[in-house]
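Reading a protein record of the kind used here takes only a little practice. These numbers are not coordinates but entries in a learned vocabulary of local backbone shapes. Here is one such record, which you should read through line by line.
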Amino acid sequence: MKLSVRVKTGKHTAKVERIDVTHYEVHVTARPEKGRANTAVLRALARHLDIASSRLRVISGHTSQSKIVEIY
């Protein structure tokens, strides 16, 4: 399953907002440096979806605010 994720970095609090079945907006406190924000996004989504973060991976948008994340 693929999820479309819009990321907002450098926020004071981390949160996940579900827009619809496959679209999410994720706020993370991490800055987009050395992949830290991507890691934070995957952890936040994993907590929200109640799955292991190892089951998620960014397949598109590694350096963009718009990402495609795959659950496998």
